[in-house]
UniProtKB/TrEMBL annotation:
GO terms for molecular function: ATP binding; ATP hydrolysis activity. It is found in: Cytoplasm; Gas vesicle. SMART domains: AAA. This is Gas vesicle protein GvpN. Its main location: cytoplasm. Belongs to the CbbQ/NirQ/NorQ/GpvN family. GO terms for biological process: gas vesicle organization. PANTHER family: MAGNESIUM-CHELATASE SUBUNIT CHLD, MOXR FAMILY PROTEIN. The keyword Cytoplasm applies. It catalyses: ATP + H2O = ADP + phosphate + H(+). Residues 38-207 form the AAA+ ATPase domain. It comes from the Bacteria.
Amino acid sequence: MRGIEELSTVIEPAPLPDFVETKHVKDLTERAMGYIKAGFPIHFRGASGTGKTTLALHVASKLERPVVLIHGDEEYTTSDLVGGEYGYHLRKVIDRFVSRVLKVEEDMVKRWVDNRLTIACKYGFTLIYDEFTRSRPEANNIFLAILQERMLDLPIRRGGEETYLRVDPNFTAIFTSNPEEYAGVHRSQDALRDRMITMDLDHFDEETEAAITQAKSGLPRKEAEKIVKVVRALRESGACEFSPTVRGAIMIARSLTVLNGHVKGSSGVFRQVCQDILASETSRVGSKSNQAKVRELVKKIVKQYC
């Protein structure tokens, strides 16, 4: 039976609430499922806000296997993925076989706990390694043998006779990452990239962005379409430090529902919400000059499209 440490890391597969599956999304899903069925791990790569993690979770739900989720971290070591010695196990034996003699034996040993990667490999779960390039390359070296030879090397101190684990045939790995020019992102090993199929994700098409915005906010479709047009026009202007994404459109739409605003160029609430959110999403923290430029540009775009 699996221990509580193992069960707490597992997510039962289920369709995502409010997930929008347009033709564009279906095409991506079908391609990814085809690569997985051919025996290859998938790597979704794209800028922040392009739906990498959501798509990874959606594909994982199609596999109908429990999901183990790992988020990349600069501080990770291999033991954070595979397992390590955490705490102690105390065994105490009291011998009263001879009535006048009390014999006590105590044995204290370190206790090994499998971490998420080992659990996924052992039981054939689906592993989603979100933003794996935020972990240092040396921590991810363990994946080379897993993906190629389907073997997981285990530390000797783990206990037992075997120093390796044969990966369950149902094990599937799905990776996501941001472009290498992003802050806090490491360049992954060529050997690891060669073992996976990378699917580059760009911004969704206009139909998909409008459908997502409507589904996530509850606004009428026509109002969601106008918000998306504003976001896309700002993106295509090339005037921003970071391109606005569908995430910005969702934030605008949700904020309007709370503030009782309307998608109209004459609405001061709508103009202010667009300026606040889009200036924030497309500029670095503290970049006041760029935010001022974006605010002025958003004001013109709102007037044009709404």
